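WARN retry 2 of 3 for item q-0093 after timeout on previous attempt; input resubmitted unchanged.
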Amino acid sequence: MRYLILAIFINIVLPAYSQNTASNQQEASSILQKASNKLNGLTIFSYDLKRELNYASEDYLYISDWSCYFNFDPTNATVGFKYQINDSISRDFFNGTEKFELNKATKTIQINNNPQKKDFKSLSYLYNSIVTLRNILPVIIEDQNSIKTVTDTIINNHTYELVTINIGKRRIQNLGEGFDVMQTKSNFIYKITIDKTSNIPIEVLQKNDLNDDFIKTNFTKINISPNQPAENSWYYSAYIDEYKQTKQKEIPQLISVGSIALDWTLPLYNKNENISLFELKGKVVLLDFWFKNCGPCIESVPHANAINKKFKNKKFEILGINTWDSKKDIGWFCNKHGVDYKVLMNGKDLSENYGVNFFPTVILIDKEGKVLYSGGFDQSKIEKLIVRAL
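OK item q-0093 returned
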């Protein structure tokens, strides 16, 4: 009898399940294709954007709101669109050539006359935005390594299509040009809610499969034929009577490989003791720059612990450099995430001196003080460099 049941399961149930799964994946891709066609067919577009960063595991919640207007122009070599973004404290503009920001509180205007693509990659209002979806949906549709499913969902008595995409240990880039490979235990899961009638997404929910942390972006007041802003509103010259110009703050250049790391002295967060780079001469030193409410910083801790465990009996030292958090918050982070290497505090000035502008950033320094590596947390690459330097 048991063999009969097993045979039925193998020959009938499994094929039916596989067929249903494949059919659902195909349906999900079809829905994403309709949404992609719709978004990529737009020339102008406006909406109100709400972004909720909800990291329950970190006791962190932050909500931002913007009103957004986009004019898509594929001939624009920088990013393919221009925009006007408005929130409670500022107005941001990119007219295809100039990028400038009005600060409503200080009545100042900051102008970038020659913006590069990198200047747009970290903008909060572009994170999981309509711009992101326009660019990434064709990539997701063709991606054979992502798992796509679709169900119906009801919001305010209206039925929407909810497409769930598990892209594994990859994260969608801000501009949607591809994925960043992440060194995480969890998989990145995106749930996109799409209006059945218009084929326009109204929400992107970014989650993981380990805890309840999420990032949610909502699109409301969607208008595919909005009134276009006045022509002169696109140029900073229209605002110089009301706003005083300030210098463009340049993004610092990360300390380069081959350069000599300048000395510094910082306190340990949990001891009445200081550590300087000078006293570590003769050791290979790995500096890990981080702050408390940084998801990738949390994800890098197990990898930093692994490096510490592997080389702790060698002439090697790994130091976590916290930028600006309080001693209490640093202690909370270290206890919660099991940090088992030394952590220094008050590292804001050091991070600026070394040109750190994203987190986590790691800098590997040899026994003589020369930089061997500076950049993101690539455990495999870092370990190979440490072995060579020891």
